[in-house]
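Progress note, project year one: complex with flavin-adenine dinucleotide.
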Amino acid sequence: MDFEHTPRARALIERLTRFMDDHVYQAEGRPEQLEPLKARARAEGLWNLFLPDAEHGAGLSNREYAPLAEIMGRSPMAPEVFNCSAPDSGNMEILARYGTPAQQERWLRPLLDGRIRSCFSMTEPGVASSDATNIEAEIRREGDHYVVNGRKWWTSGIADPRCELIVFMGKTNAANPDKHRQQSMLLIPRDTPGVQVVRNLDVFGWDDAPHGHAEVLYENVRVPVENILLGEDRGFEIAQGRLGPGRIHHCMRLVGRAERCLELMCARSKARVAFGKPLAGQTVTMERIAQARVLIDQARLLTLHAAWKMDTVGIKGARKEIAMIKVAAPAMACQVIDWAIQAHGAAGLSKDFILARSYAQARGLRIADGPDEVHRNQIARLELAAH
Ligand SMILES: Cc1cc2nc3c(=O)[nH]c(=O)nc-3n(C[C@H](O)[C@H](O)[C@H](O)COP(=O)(O)OP(=O)(O)OC[C@H]3O[C@@H](n4cnc5c(N)ncnc54)[C@H](O)[C@@H]3O)c2cc1C
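Model obtained:
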C-alpha cells in the first residue's frame, strides 16, 4: 500500500482544512449557519466528495476520500456542510448505482444539490435487526402499487423537516427459501399518507435535532411500483453494497473526531494546575495521551488499509478489512474521548465542549450499522475459512 496522498487529494486536504479553520469551527452550535455554509462549500467545489461516481460526485477513490472524511469528522456539523453526511450519502450512493433515470431525476438530483434530506428505514423494534433477515415489515403488490405495513425505529433523519425521501427495507417474498432474496427496497415519499412518526428517540439524552432518530409506523402506505429499487427481492444485495462504504465513512470521521478530542485534552491538561503541577505533568495523563496517540494512529492506518482494499479488490473483497475497522474505530474513539472527558473534569460532560456529544456518537457506532459482535463473527469466519 502506498501512503502518499495523490496530488488531487493533497490539494483537497489543504482546501478543506482551510475551510474548516475559516468557517466551520466558529459556526459550531449555531444551526442557522448551516445553509449559508453549505452554499459556500458548494461554490468552492467542496461538495459531494464522498461519491466515487465521477458523473454525479467528485470521483475520488476511497483512499483519497479517507483523509477528507477524517477532516470533516472533526466537527459534528461539518459532514453536512459538505453534503457528505449519513444517511444521505449512503442513499445517494445507492440511487447513483441502482436508481432508474426517473428515480435519479426525482430523488438523486435534489439530494446531490443538498436541497432535500433522506432517511433509511430498516431496523424494527420487534425483531433483532442486527440480523437483517429477521425484518418483518411487509411490502405487498396490489396492481400498479406496493402497499407497505410495518413498524420501524431508529430511522435517522426522518424527523428533519427537510426530509423528503424514505429508503425503506421490507419483505416482498417472505416465503422464499433463500433468506437473502426475501427483501426489497422501496422509495417512499416522506409525505405519503400512512407514514406516521410515533416518537423521537434520544441517544444518551441527545435528540440529534433536527436530524433525529424516530420510531415510525407504516400503515397501508401506497407507492407506485416504479418506486422499487433495482427489483423485487434484491434488497439484501443493495443493503450489502450500501453498508460497506457507509461503515468505513463513519470510521474515517471517528478518527478525525478522536484526533480533535485529543487536541482538546492536551490543551486542557497543559492549562490546568492541580496539586502543584499541570495535569499534563501527571504521569497518568501522560500515559493516556501517549496511548491515545497510539490508538488513533492504529485506527487511521487500519482505515486507510481498508479503503485501499476497497479500491483494489472491491467492497466484497474488502469485507474483512471493513469489519475490522468497524470494530476498531468506535472502540478507539470511545476510549480516547473518555480520557479527554476525564481530563476536563465536570466540564467534559457538559455541552461547553464537543466531548460528551462525541462520546454519545462513538458509543452509538458500536451498535449502529451492525454491532461489534456481528462484525467480529464475520472476521472470525473469514479468518477460519483461510485455514
Ligand atoms: C445512533 C443510531 C442510529 C441508527 N440509525 C439507523 C438508521 O438510520 N436506520 C436503521 O434502519 N437503523 C438504524 N440504527 C439501528 C441499528 O442499525 C441497529 O440498532 C443495529 O443493527 C442492531 O440491531 P438491534 O438494535 O435490533 O439489536 P439486536 O439485533 O437486538 O442485537 C442486540 C445485541 O445483541 C448482540 N448480538 C447480536 N448479534 C450477535 C451475534 N451474532 N453474536 C453475539 N452477539 C450478538 C449485540 O451485542 C447486539 O448489540 C441506528 C442505531 C443507532 C444507535
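Residues 117-229 form a domain with the Butyryl-CoA Dehydrogenase, subunit A; domain 2 fold (CATH 2.40.110.10).
The mean pLDDT is 96.
No further modelling is planned for this target in the current period.
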